[in-house]
Amino acid sequence: MRILPGAALVCALSLLLASAVMAGTPGMREAALKYFTPEEIARGQSYMGGRYLLFGIRSAVQLSFLLLLIVTPAGRILRDLCTAWAGHRPWLALTLYAVSLLLLYRLLLLPLELYGGYYREHMYGLSTQDLGGWFRDWAKGLLLQLVMLVPTVNLLYLFIRRDPVRWFVPTTVILGALILLLTFLAPVVIDPLFHRFTPLEDPALRTRILRLAERAGIPVEQVLVADASRRTVKANAYVTGFGRTKRIVLYDTLLKRSSADEVEAVLAHEMGHRMYHHIWKGVGLSVVALFVGLGITALVLRWGSARGLITDPADPAGLPLLALTLFVLSLVMLPVQNAISRHFERQADRTVLELTGNREAHIKVEVDLARANLADVTPPRWAVLLLYSHPPVLERIAIAE
Ligand SMILES: [Zn+2]
Question: Is the pTM of this model over 0.85?
């Protein structure tokens, strides 16, 4: 009985916190109406509201799938089947088990992904892709995951077998090196699987961009246009790679809808990311997060074998436990990761004004991109804290103002 007042206090506090977090910022709608029509606001709310919900459902499905494999005999039955198939080749048993888990997982999520990524995008007039094209992308993504999963999981268990306590140290070193390599190679190896890239042709725009890069002190090697319009009407631009693979990529959808001033504003933002070394910082932070995450996973695997959930830390049946630990940690860390990302985005936004001095173009392109991408211009605070890698559009306009 003594815990009751405490429990009541906790409930009251959580309700207070929840209502503060659920509400939008006061005055947000009035501010939004300066730039957007009520219909645009409602449409963005409806589109993004569904995406928040889909994120919740997807996370619940992912959690349940992994939990079921751990608490029911299903995971161990599948491991036994793979072990029987592989004979006396432990690496093959592990590979078969990991691959079948990934296939099951992706098939389970397929209806949600199809609804969210295809049907819903068409419903809102955002997708230009046909069903065959969508499935080709899905299959390419899956193939890529398989290609990366097989060596990674074998390496991981090689280290776990060698040292069931401290395996996460060499694993972090190797995976960190892989992240670096992928950051370098992705623009030339992975991105071309999904988009075709051509050099920006417009000579006047090219000259402007190169001048802008000069002012930013960044030797731009390539400004490329991606044929995004084959998939979507959404507009975007990004900066990727480093060293010789460094490049600025513009969606053709952005070029179609924006003036040269606006494209320049978007690129100044991308150069801001360069000037602040956001790619390097991102890689560094990922490696630190990986180290902590794998360290905790090592503890969980030892706990699991002590509790008899798995025979020992190197038991392949521990894979769902490992995946669950990393998944829960990534959910917990998502608000932190997004807060850091929003900080980077604000820094990059401030560079736009420093480099171009063109406040109007910056604001105009923010408003236009929010319209094109059906942004929620009055998002609830919890969604921003949890899910937003970029500040909401009104905040970005406020920075410019
Ligand atoms: Zn950015």
Answer: yes
